[in-house]
Amino acid sequence: xxxxxxxxVVVMTLAIAGVLPAQQNDYIVGPQDVLTVTVYDQAxxxxxxxxxxxxxxxxxxxxxxxVGGLSLxxxxxxxxxxxxxxxxxxxxxxxxxxxxxxxRIFVMGEVRAPxxxxxxxDMTVIEALARAGSTTNDAAEEVMIVRPSAGAAGTGPVMPDxxxxxxxxxxxxxxxxxxxxxxxxGLRDGDTLxxxxxxxxxxxxxxxxxxxxxxxxxxxxxxxxxxAGGVTDRGSTGRVYIVRTEADGxxxxxxxxxxxxxxxGDTLxxxxxFF
Length: 275
Prior knowledge:
By secondary structure, the protein is α+β, with helices and mostly antiparallel strands. It folds into three domains: 7-20 and 103-195, Outer membrane lipoprotein wza domain like (Outer membrane lipoprotein wza fold like, Roll), CATH 3.10.560; 34-99, wza like fold (2-Layer Sandwich); 199-272, Outer membrane lipoprotein wza fold like (Roll). The chain is 16% helix and 31% strand. The chain has five helices and 15 strands. The protein has helices spanning 7-17, 72-84, 125-131, 173-177, 221-227, and strands spanning 34-39, 47-50, 56-59, 63-66, 93-99, 104-109, 115-118, 142-147, 167-172, 192-195, 199-205, 211-215, 235-245, 251-255, 267-272. The protein is elongated.
């Protein structure tokens, strides 16, 4: 019942869906980005240009150029305009991002390599999970994107309860893995991708492998028993009980059917046959 995404599955899904990351024309350039500028038939002008902290880069012939806050196509238009102003006749300019450094996202929780990652092009949830080494075995099936309110992106990750006006977007990893690309949400600067730990139930009594098991929403008693290896020869599927903590804090034992749904924190107990 546990959902797990491996790097191989991520790459295969991306390849099949045709959504491998591509640089967006509307990517907004910022400080510390490194741009590759190609001026056709002008090898001396073609090269890699870092964007300084004030949002400018130094370009041959024309000097300092303000590019911070412009899209890639906007940078192309600005360079073309200035080069055409007395330097080149009808210059053809192409700009791409060599290194994304001005924008970033945060990946937290049950991933193999949590941390800060540069926001590159049209990065989506599935690419961010791949960058973070994929989810761990303990990851839940639903992940959250915590998006700061406009102008509130800070210097670190934002958890769901830390910013009043933050937007929380929930993504079902099972649906994403099944190819539902509507779940493959595009990320923005300052987003925090939170992968929580899966919720568990405890299975004890006459089962082959007692212990705690991760579950997903809608897991039935029968499915939980299957996670524990099934009922032993001495156990009875007609004598399965759930010990559940109710709202008043008291624990109650209730006999259940195999088709009943379990809840996180439940303890399933399989009792012996009468004969």
